[in-house]
Every structure is written in structure tokens, then in C-alpha cells.
Amino acid sequence: MKRFASRLAMLAVLVGALLALCNAAAIRYTPPTVFSQKLSLIEQQDLSGVQVAIFGTSRPYHGVDPAALPWPAYNFCDLGQPLDLSYAVFHRQLPRMPHLGVLILGVDEFTFGIDDANLPSAEDYLDHGYDVPHATWMTRLRARIPLLRFRRNLLPQLLAATLGKDFYDRTVVDDADRPGHPDHPCLMARTGFFYTPTHAGDVSDALGERRAVDRRIGYNAALRAANRNLLATLLSEAVSHHIRVVLLRTPVHAAYRRHEDAALEHDFADDVASVMQRFSPNDVKLLSYWKRDFPDIEYNDVDHLNGAGAQHLARLLAEDAQWAFADKALTSN
């Protein structure tokens, strides 16, 4: 019996050592993602002069060029960034922006029905020390133990420990995810903007229908109440620091609008109104360019602008959001 217990203990030690080794390899060789690299760039950036901050999903990430605004601005948006991740970054970075006067927060028809807290991108935020409000204990555990992140291809991680990092880079890291690659979205480090080259993108009716269906499938009405409260919390924090808020709906192509879900739009309007009524219109306003027709050449696809469209929208914002900048001692670029 003692011999069995001794062997069992030895086996447990060996398994524990192997798991520790594998986790160490996972920590070392897990490739950077668009999320982790954007967060690293934000943390390296001098934000002391930022006066306008932009948050939201890929729509304002692609769609608002901070350099085209007449005030020092930074685009904190990320791909698929929902309210919980927007709030996590805003709350963490606010002390680094002593001159912040205006917050531009992108809102979409699906804003109140999505929650990224339990998807892989949340692990990157947690790994960088951000508090993601809705993250479950399992997501928090995966953020602490990279070995549990099976989505990042566990086998090459283990092989890399013996064959070297070059092997890992060749087999796992996509070219566009390599730091310094010209197609990497985070190269625009000064302003945080996801620049898309100006060319005529896909604005076909087929893509519009497919994208609208995807938005409906990913929408969860059970999250509406929690997201309304989270938005109210974010707005309250901004207003308490004398920051005015522009809730922004970026334009989408008619090929997308033709297939939009009327019920989704109705719920969105109700949710936004229920939150906005808690605040003074001098502090929070909605600017919607949802049905504003931009030229086809300014779209990257049916619901994302390209570089030219992003400059166009920034110029419109500079005019239409003048109320937000009134009596703010903002410095022109």
C-alpha cells in the first residue's frame, strides 16, 4: 500500500511538472493577437494630451479617423469591442487622460445584445490587467493559465518548446498578426486607428443580407438589461469627470439596411432612450449617421467605412458635435 501511494505521489509530481512546463511554453509561445497588441500599444502610448477618446466596435475602429478631428484624439476601439470591454479600457485609462473632454462611444443595433466577456478576446483584456465586468470564473482562469486556451492551437505550443520559436512562428502566427506587418491593424499607434486603404469594397446585396443575418444570430436579448446598466455606469463615470458623451451610430450601406431586423432596431431605440433619459442632454447626445448615404468608394464593406469614409465621418462629427466641445478648453491639432 505504501509502495502504491509512493508511486501515485511520484506520478502526481511528474504530471504536475509536465503541466507546469507546458503552461510555461504556452506563456512564452502564445502568439500576439490583434487584441493583445492593441492593448500593448494603448499602454505604451502617451495619453496625457488626449482630449477626445473614441470607443466601440470595429465600425468606429474603421470609421473614425482621429487625425481628421480638429482636437487631439485617440481611437481605443477594437474588433468586436462590446460595452464591457469598452468600459474596462475607459475605466483603466481615464486617469492617464487628465485633459479628456469628450467621449465618442460607438453604439450599434446589436450593442445591447452582445457580451464578449466569455469569448477569447476577453482573455487578452484580463491578461493585461483589465477588469471585464461580465467575465465568468472560467474565462478568468483561462486568462491566468494560457495552457487552457485551446483555441490558440495547443499542439504547436508544445512542439515549440522542443523545436524552437521559429517553428512556432512558421506554423501558427498568421502573417497579419505579426508585429510590424504592413497589414496589421495596430500599426497606426499614434492615434489607435484601424486604417483601411481607400478602394471600392464589397457593398453587394448578398453580403448585406449575410452580414445582417450574422448580427441577428449573434444577438442575445437576455443581455439587454445588464448592458443598459453597464452603459449607464460608463456614462455616469464620464459625466462625473465633466466629460461630455457622443453616442455615435456610424453609417452603413443601403445594401445592409435593406436586410436589417426591424425588431432589433426597435429594441435598440428603446434601450438607448431608457439610458439617455437618466442624463442631461447637455451631457449625453446621440448622433446617428445610420441612414446617411456615403459614396460606395468610402466603404470597406457593407457596414464598415474605409480610410476616406473615416475622414469624411470625422469631419461631420467635428461639425455636428460642436455642442459637446462648447466651453471645453480643447486645443486644436
The 3D shape can be described as globular
Look at the structure and give the mean pLDDT. 79
Low-confidence stretches: 156-189
Tell me the strand order in the biggest sheet.
Answer: 2-1-3-4-5
Profile the largest sheet. Answer: 5 strands, parallel
How widely separated are the two ends? 78 Å
Whole-angstrom Rg: 22 Å
Helix content: 40-55%
**SSE-based structural type:** alpha/beta
Count of helix runs: 14
Give a description of the structure.
- The protein is of the alpha/beta class.
- Helices cover 47% and strands 8% of the residues.
- The chain has 14 helices and 7 strands.
- Strands 2-1-3-4-5 form a 5-stranded parallel beta sheet.
- The longest helix is centred in the first third of the chain and has 28 residues, at 2-29.
- It is globular and about 80 Å long.
Describe this protein with a few key phrases.
333 residues; alpha/beta; two-stranded antiparallel sheet; 14 helices; 7 strands
